[in-house]
């Protein structure tokens, strides 16, 4: 039987959309390529989600997942390979084909890479993009965090809390992280500003990084056992591009304020749409997308006559 709504992606936006879609009476399915939760799982501590004074990202995601499971079917480890656009839509995975009347893309983002020598070679051997996943392995060791935004600051604070000796490396002359995070770094974390990582060195595992101070035009080798890269994300918008959905110059899906894309009955929500990348925003956009799908399936806006 065809679904009314299929959601591609099981992060906060996708889970929220699933809850709102199913509660609106739509037969809804969420397809997630890995474990539900997306990058929100990696947040060491979330202190700005309404109603939660402080909660680990993984814990919040599990709460969202459990709530969604009451209403909607969730298939994990089932990546979408292709979408056929016709009168309705046909979503293909390695495990099956799913017809649907409407589609929400909540495919999120992936970590940006530094693109330097040694990064790929030492991935999983000292190079990581998730402090909460791998940080405990480096307890008592020296590590570097690369980045200057909120995520990088939180990763540095988390690594310090589990017993790592942390150096934060940022390419600009000041951190972009919020004030309260910068205050938490002071006196605890060695911060290297105006600095870029040019190479990650080692043998079987990471042994150090080569840092270029762009202000002083000097280079220095720093001995570390781990490198945690936190320099932003790239949108997972390949599926959207394949079916002709409009993207902005950075590759994010463009939507209107109701999360509608340029293709009728296709919506997008969450980090893949760019803008403010916060869990609360992703959840709200997921809800709006699902409600727009419900409204359009009842009363299609694209068939209305202009008078």
Characteristics:
307 residues, alpha/beta, FAD/NAD(P)-binding domain
Describe what you observe in this structure.
It contains seven helices and 17 strands. It folds into two domains: 3-111 and 233-303, FAD/NAD(P)-binding domain (3-Layer(bba) Sandwich); 127-229, FAD/NAD(P)-binding domain. By secondary structure, the protein is an alpha/beta fold. The strands form four sheets. Strands 1, 2, 3, 4, 5, 6 and 17 form a seven-stranded mixed β-sheet that branches. A five-stranded parallel β-sheet has the order 8-15-9-10-11, with helices on one face. Strands 12-13-14 form a three-stranded antiparallel β-sheet, with no helix packed on it. The protein is elongated. Strand 2 (28-31), helix 2 and strand 3 (73-75) form a beta-alpha-beta unit. The longest helix is centred in the last third of the chain and has 20 residues, at 279-298.
